[in-house]
Amino acid sequence: MLNARTTHAFHIFDDKILAIGGFDDDGNGMLSIESYDIHFDQWTILTSIPGAISKTWPQSLGTVNRRIYISVFHTSNSFIVMQEGYFFDLDTQQWIKAPVVHERARYCPTVQLRFPKKCPSCKQTLFHH
pLDDT tens-digit profile of 23-62? Predict the structure, then answer.
């Protein structure tokens, strides 16, 4: 990785590994998304999560139609409060504001919502949500 981080999310697509958000060595929230290309053995910074502030916990929650849902958590007392949601379109590399899934959560897991399905006519594996 180009920037050391902890408590970040990982996402895999098109032979690339994404490192999303997390915290730096000083405990500050990181908004960058880095991409690792397994064929070229190279890391690049793709983008930053929009609208978030320091001391946040960006987390990838899932992928639907080649869009990663990112929710941004802010700590408040003993709760983790989800305040913002975005889709990152993997094809256009653009951000789209998304609804917040749930306003208060003590724990929110990372899930990938992709289920393979065979096309009846061409027998190709398709992914749908």
Answer: 888 887 788 889 999 999 999 999 888 765 444 555 556 7
Residue 34 falls within a domain, yes or no?
A: yes
pLDDT of 13-28, one tens digit each? 888 999 888 888 888 7
Which band of pLDDT confidence, cut at 50, 70 and 90, is reported for residue 86? confident
Residue 53 tokens read as 């502030």
Please report, for the domain that includes residue 51, its CATH number.
2.120.10.80
Report d(CA 56, CA 101) in Å as an integer: 17
In the block, tokens 């978030």 appear at 52
Q: Which residues of 68-97 are buried (b: 16+ CB within 10 A; e: fewer)?
A: bbbbbbbeeeeebbbebbbbbebeeeebee
Identify the helix (H) or strand (E) that includes residue 119.
none
Structural domain harbouring 40? 9-128
**Rounded to a whole number, what is the largest CA-CA distance in the chain?**
55
**28 located within any domain:** yes
